[in-house]
Hints:
7 helices; 14% strand; 226 residues; alpha/beta; binds zinc ion
Amino acid sequence: xxxxxxxxxxxxxxxxxxxxxxxxxxxxxxxxxxxxxxxxxxxxxxxxxxxxxxxxxxxxxxxxxxxxxxxxxxxxxxxxxxxxxxxxxxxxxxxxxxxxxxxxxxxxxxxxxxxxxxxxxxxxxxxxxxxxxxxxxxxxxxxxxxxxxxxxxxxxxxxxxxxxxxxxxxxxxxxxxxxxxxxxxxxxxxxxxxxxxxxxxxxxxxxxxxxxxxxxxxxxxxxxxx
Length: 226
Ligand SMILES: [Zn+2]
């Protein structure tokens, strides 16, 4: 009996050791494959100011605020991996000027100007989704079908979502949005999940899940570039 127990403990210890070694080697591969110092990525936190985006039912369940928090976390990951990051906004205000008659149009125009001035290699626009049917959920990347890089990057991020996130959409999707179409710089829109779905809303509001989504986006970008 004692011998059997000893053998069991030995086998479990070996399994833990193998697991640890594999985790360390995966991390090592990722760290060594990041020569991205000259690579600029614009992170666009969607909405802001008078445009709150979509809203959920829980406290602080507001797209304007969540997009910014996710954008900041993504920035910290990308910076850690050597990318140069430009943010379109760093607070909850919109980008429009106070005097603009069409503030939404002015806001989007300002985002385009920042993207073009940055001479970026990629644009990642962060959003939260919402739908009338409450059961609908899942993170999804959107791309411009006219832009091969946009499509491939969205597919790479979506594949990573499928590995990392519960109920992520099976495929990325074509999107006809200003931020995808306003410049030739390849862009993707990341809809991190649905605030209209109660389970996903709770996840999206937790900092653990925010880290998970942002790390997944980072891995999708790294995989695409490698
Ligand atoms: Zn949005």
